[in-house]
Design brief:
The chain has 9 helices and 12 strands. The two termini are 32 Å apart. It has a single domain, classed as 3-Layer(aba) Sandwich (Rossmann fold). With 253 residues, the protein is α/β, with parallel strands linked by helices. Helix content is 36%, strand content 28%. The protein is globular, with a radius of gyration of 18 Å. Belongs to the ABC transporter superfamily. Ycf16 family. Pfam families: ABC_tran (PF00005). Keywords: ATP-binding, Nucleotide-binding. One of its GO terms (molecular function) is ATP hydrolysis activity.
Length: 253
């Protein structure tokens, strides 16, 4: 059996004294897109932060395996070099740092961590131009400070461009549809779909089924009270849209 890109086993995590993840089990094989849906406060975003290695969260039990290797002892930058990418719900602004400069620094930091030579400028520019064409990102946007004054759609496109250039094994999209109008949603979804690959897995976290009209998942999971309580195909998302989450609230007990 092929090793899945992501395997989570009985994951428990807390912040301060509050347990948020209460036994998450999840396997995402290579090439698949899985969606997690759940109401506010169910622990969806916490799962994304724990995968990325955010400091505030303490894992008290369980395992996270990336391509069969545990990442729990890795720092966030080490997880990124190993192939984990987190697209934030609200991408941060970095005044004074051009988007292009940020992209080159991120790519070269990962290459260095993997023992690869740094990209020379001509090769970097070629890769940026290719990704920009694919994602409808023009070079003028890349000269602006990262996310400063960007619209919601521009911020998400810049983030998907990072994903295209870094080529992660696991893409975690935390409510990437937040704050997007329908046109921006379609552009971002098209970019995400262009990055689907037999060697990459994606975890899409969302409240709303509308995103899954554009990024059609292989599997949908329902999250409630810190764990996955139901899994199914894309039709499960339609059921949630029609009925809400009330039917699943008791399932986590």
């Amino acid at each position: 059996m092929t090793t899945p890109i992501l395997e989570i086993r009985n994951l428990h995590a807390r912040i301060e004294d509050r347990e948020i993840l209460k036994g998450v089990n999840l396997i995402i094989p290579a090439g698949e897109v899985h969606a997690i849906m759940g109401r506010n406060g169910s622990g969806k975003s916490t799962l994304s932060y724990v995968l990325a290695g955010k400091d505030d969260y303490e894992v008290t039990e369980g395992e996270i395996l990336l391509n069969g290797e545990s990442i729990l002892e890795m720092e966030p930058n080490e997880r990124a070099a190993a192939g984990v990418f987190l697209a934030f719900q609200y991408p941060i602004e970095i005044p004074g740092v051009a988007t292009m400069t940020f992209l080159k620094a991120a790519m070269n930091a990962q290459r260095k961590a993997r023992g690869e030579a740094e990209l020379l400028t001509p090769e970097f520019m070629r890769l940026v131009k290719e990704a920009g064409t694919q994602l409808q990102v023009d070079t003028a946007m890349l000269k602006r400070p990262l996310n400063v004054g960007f619209s919601g759609g521009e911020k998400k496109r810049a983030e998907i461009m990072q994903m295209a250039l870094l080529k992660p094994a696991l893409c975690v999209l935390d409510e990437t549809d937040s704050g997007l109008d329908i046109d921006a949603l379609q552009v971002v979804s098209k970019g995400v779909n262009a990055l689907r690959s037999d060697s990459r897995s994606m975890l899409v976290i969302t409240h709303y089924q509308r995103l899954l009209n554009h990024i059609v998942p292989d599997v949908v999971h329902v999250f409630s009270d810190g764990r996955i309580v139901e899994s199914g195909d894309k039709d499960l998302a339609l059921q949630l849209e029609a009925k809400g989450y009330a039917d699943f609230d008791g399932a986590a007990a």
